[in-house]
Amino acid sequence: MFDVKKVEMEWGGQTLTLETGRIARQADGAVLATLGETVVLCAVTAAKSVREGQDFFPLTVHYQEKFSAAGRIPGGFFKREGRATEKETLTSRLIDRPCRPLFPEGFYNEINVICQVLSYDGENEPDILAMVAASAALTISGVPFMGPIGAARVGFKDGEYQLNPTLASIDEDGELDLVVAATPGAVMMVESEAKELTEDQMLGAVMFAHDACKDVANLIIDLAEQAAKAPWELEPLENKDDVKAKLKDHIGDDLAAAYKLTDKQARQDAINAAREKARELFEGEDDPSEYLGALKLVKKLESEIVRGSILKDGTRIDGRKVDEVRPIEAMVGLLPRTHGSSLFTRGETQAIVTTTLGTKDAEQMIDGLEGLSYSNFMLHYNFPPYSVGEVGRFGFTSRRETGHGKLAFRALRPVLPTLEEFPYTIRVLSDITESNGSSSMATVCGGSLAMMDAGVPLARPVSGIAMGLILEGEDFAVLSDILGDEDHLGDMDFKVAGTEKGITSLQMDIKVAGITQEIMKSALEQASGGRAHILGEMSKALSSVRTEMSEHAPRIETLQINKEKIRDVIGTGGKVIREIVAETGAKVDIDDEGLIKVSSSDKSQIEAALKWIEGIVEEAEVGKIYDGKVVNLVDFGAFVNFMGGKDGLVHVSEIKNERVEKVSDELSEGQEVKVKVLEIDQRGKVRLSMRVVDQETGEELEDTRPPRESKPRGPRRDGGGGRGRGRDGGGGRGRGRNNDGPKDEGGDIPLPSSITED
Question: Which of 142, 401, 486, 536 is surrounded by the fewest CB atoms within 10 Å?
């Protein structure tokens, strides 16, 4: 019934299997990819015709994680998968970015790529497997896909590269999380987070990943040889050289002059005027396709002008040298009520970045295949349409915004302090107010400054730069700090972020399949110099982390206690911890390891709560003096609460040196007193004294009372003194039926039963 085709190989210590023909047979291409016990299904469908007037390639990639894959039921009210999570959005972009450039020019049929995680074993990450499955499904579908591509994740630990490590191992002690997609001949995409690795280490990781990608691509070719559908027949592109020459004669000089204008708005106005001039030239054409085709040729003409100028004489659009960074202006403390803020401007790119500090309950909850987890660092990036002078949709978080925010997140996370060093939840918010090239790297620079302004103890400041590439045959030029137009008309978008010590993040997208190791090495070295320059400009605004946080930021103090004491601090049903919060006004959080975080904007509230907690967990010491509060009066003395959560008895004989007839004459409930611990018995009962402590100063007084003489016990009367309820001797602990209570050995002062012998 099923014509199943299957290929497999050993890959990174696991068996990688690609299968087609059993599932989703009505799709143009469907592949079930398995690595270990992680299984991903990818199905590709393509429209057989193009909508009239369409002049772009509508490729849509959807990646979805089924909770059932990990044996879980989704949380929340609606128990089904909903809108795409951040991870799903980012993985969709990982698949889209290397595949999109591998479709031929002029192919405008809509293509839908859907990847679904069906099984997850907790070790083999489904994002890499989804990239492989998508590449295989496209390759066998028959659509004009100039792949296949392979994909791999690379880690770095103890000087060794690791193929496809688990994310848990990377988070624990790994130094690198790098994802690469590549054809057998060229690297197409790089996405990474690193702990300040050198340029050579990063380049080595990319090359290591490329070798692994080649093996996967060859496996996909093996599958395609068995199962690929007949390739689509494409109409050859019409030769438009004569139209192009006509356009060049008509507006070539106008475009060349426009691209010499350094101001973005003036340049855009001049380019739009040249395009309008081209429209007028072709408006009379009877065939609308001629008109649309001519407009596309205008863009090609623009590309040739810009690229030719850079390769021939090194002249860029705004007149800079290839390795020159635009003017930078940075400032901090821009917004008075935020916990930290910065304004970072580089040329015509600008970002307002703020840092907000919060407590544990502000952490981001993440519900995914791995289970429920929490993150104490968030970075959100917004790109409003006014930043590029356009009218557009506002308020909706696009995939691009999610991706740019994650890039900045990866760049900054490696330098963050540990929770033990800085027990705050940190949110960085970047609002792009102007954009003409690399707003994500402006977010990195502004985010670093905003956190330093907020007092976050970063290991080192981080800067970022976007590099570009113009490649024609063997001639190439690497561009530092690219403009938006250079990004659109160039062959590479290469973003590098890092500290003075090393790289923290690297992202690369290639539009041509010819970049070499030499070009990548050159780009990394040139980016290193650019990053250093930007760090120097940033230091003019703020060179080190502020030692004092904003007065509007919450203060958090931590206290590590023995895990056995956690129940004492929480109390039955949370009674004790609620009382601490209610009485002091501070917020108290405690984890399973006994780490307590006390937070408040009022330092005195924090101190009061910490003192209370310390009193609960501290062991009382015999001979030590404590502050206490009378909580209960009895005939034979008073019970005093001290150390926050402990009670002890001040016997009537220990209230004053002279005889006390009635306890209530000397003490009242709620009265603050100072007591000394006299004794702690085996059951934890505490005997206290007030008379040997100066109640004003808290200093210990000399005990002037003469010691009592001990009298020998007489024989016990029949029926008295036992625990039983003898008919003539009374019951309980008393010495006789008519006793009012226990007596001390030498007189008529009653002693509490808790501190006398039976």
Answer: 536
Q: How many helices (H) and strands (E) does the chain have?
A: 15, 29
CA distance 687 to 703: 16
Q: What region, left, alpha or beta, does residue 681 occupy, with left being phi > 0 and alpha being psi -120 to 50 degrees?
A: beta
Looking at residue 713, what is its pLDDT?
Answer: 53
Residue type, 141: S
Rounded Cα–Cα distance for residues 153 and 167 (Å): 10
Amino acid at 612: W
Closest CA to 353 of 451, 257, 262, 419: 451
Residue among 515, 479, 465, 490 nearest 203 (CA): 515
The pTM of this model reads: 0.80
Q: Who's near 502: CB < 8 A, 6+ residues apart?
A: 194, 195, 196, 197, 198, 201
Q: What structural domains does the chain harbor?
A: 5-227 (3.30.230.70), 241-313 (1.10.10.400), 328-539 (3.30.230.70), 555-689 (2.40.50.140), 707-758 (no CATH)
CA 139 remoteness from chain centre: 35
Q: Based on the number of CB atoms within 10 Å of its own CB, is 397 exposed (0-12), middle (13-18) or buried (19 or more)?
A: middle
The DSSP secondary-structure symbol of 18 reads E
Tokens of 628: 């206490």
Count of CB atoms within 10 A of residue 582's CB? 8
516: Cβ contacts below 8 Å, ≥ 6 apart? none
Element (H, E) at 170: helix 167-173
User: Residue 65 belongs to what H/E stretch?
Assistant: strand 59-65
Dihedral, CA atoms, 526, 529, 530, 531, nearest 10 degrees?
A: 120
Largest CA distance in the chain: 131
Q: What is the pLDDT of residues 449-489, one digit of tens each?
A: 999 999 999 999 999 999 999 888 878 899 999 988 888 88
Secondary structure of 432-492 as H, E, C letters: EEECCCCHHHHHHHHHHHHHHHHCCCCCCCCEEEEEEEEEECCEEEEEECCCHHHHHHCCE
654 alpha carbon, distance to own chain's centre: 59
The annotation status of 431 as a binding-site residue, yes or no, is no
Q: Which H or E run contains 114?
A: strand 111-119
Detail the DSSP E strand segments found in 511-636.
555-560, 587-590, 595-600, 625-634
Is residue 18 within 8 A of residue 219, CB to CB? The reply is yes
CB contact at 8 A, 557 and 598: yes
pLDDT tens digits, one per residue of 53-62: 777 899 999 9
Mind listing the pLDDT tens digit for each residue in 105-124?
A: 889 999 999 999 999 998 99
Residue 168 has, within 13 A of its CA and on its CB side, a CA count of 7
Query: b/e string for 104-123 if b means 16 or more Cβ within 10 A?
Result: eebbebbbbbbbbbbbbeeb
